Fold:
Amino acid sequence: MSKNDVKKVVLAYSGGLDTSVILKWLQTTYNCEVVTFTADLGQGEELEPARRKAEMLGIKPENIYIEDLREEFVKDFVFPMFRMNAMYEGQYLLGTSIARPLISKRQIEIARMVGADAVCHGATGKGNDQVRFELGYYALEPNIKIIAPWREWDLSSRTKLIDFAEKNQIPIAKDKYGEAPFSVDANLLHSSSEGKVLEDPAVEAPEMVYMRTIAPEAAPDKATVITMDFVAGNAVAIDGVTMSPATLLTKLNELGKANGIGRLDLVENRFVGMKSRGVYETPGGTILYAAHRGIESITMDREAMHLKESLMPRYAELVYYGFWFTPEREMIQALCDKSQENVTGRVTVKLYKGNVTVIGRESPYSLYDQELVTFEEGAVAYDHRDAQGFIKLNALRLRTLAMRKARNS
Structure:
């Protein structure tokens, strides 16, 4: 792509050192008009400084977009993923992965609105996010031009970034001088910390890494018990109080933080082919995951549940790799959402020193029949003698195999 081909670009902009350097680099390298887009996904940071910094770097006020996407994030991205109980490699609740398609979607929408011919992100050339952003861009706007500075420039170190910033009079926060101890990505669902002090997987992560939870050892000695109401697979209320999706997840985060819930130290397989060590905190999501499985346990048919669970690893991979806007993800989502039609009811959850335990479940659509499972006399819906034929039919092939083995030994 010729640098003269780009007239206007929409930059995913946080206001931090990296994207501020990228903003100036775009202006000087591509000589193009820059539009900044900053998404509030509940990362917990004040976003107005990003506006002031963009203005200081010469961006017109009408070209600065700062948008609160928290409700859309939880309702249209987090909740669908949790209806699927998606978990990558058996542990990771996909907090970073699920934020990327929303950012990509809104970036493309803004590009269309302002007539931009390119979009730009600040993801590095070694990570998953470059793939997630760009797959999203291409899925929504197949002919869009994409600028990925970390694959183009020679600013390959923190020192070079700072030198560039100083030469171009870009303000640098004091804690950005020197090497940062680790990098952080955060949104309403989770925080992710990687690199530097976390690069040796044999060494325990220092306590300073954790920002969303207290240590389980420091959590209260008394358990916190809450109820959660679900409708069609989505959480709608805590302790009987109805809440919007983002408000509900915020409340769960507070409860999880106070009880030391949601920490994960993980070595995972990146899509680009390498292993990486990350420390994740998903306090509210960990509670939501356990509670959702609790209400499913009494409302879902066995075969429907097992089919859905068999597809979960594939769905989780699609989210992790960045294939959100694909027919295969949408097909699995449609199956999942059909399975959730009767996943409605109330779950009681106990939170205690890093643990989430479902201790009660009830639903008007419950498939749990106490008369069927009771060991007491009087159950008439189940005849124990029926089990004999059931067992013999299921054992027929096993008996046949055993007889062949005996015959040929």
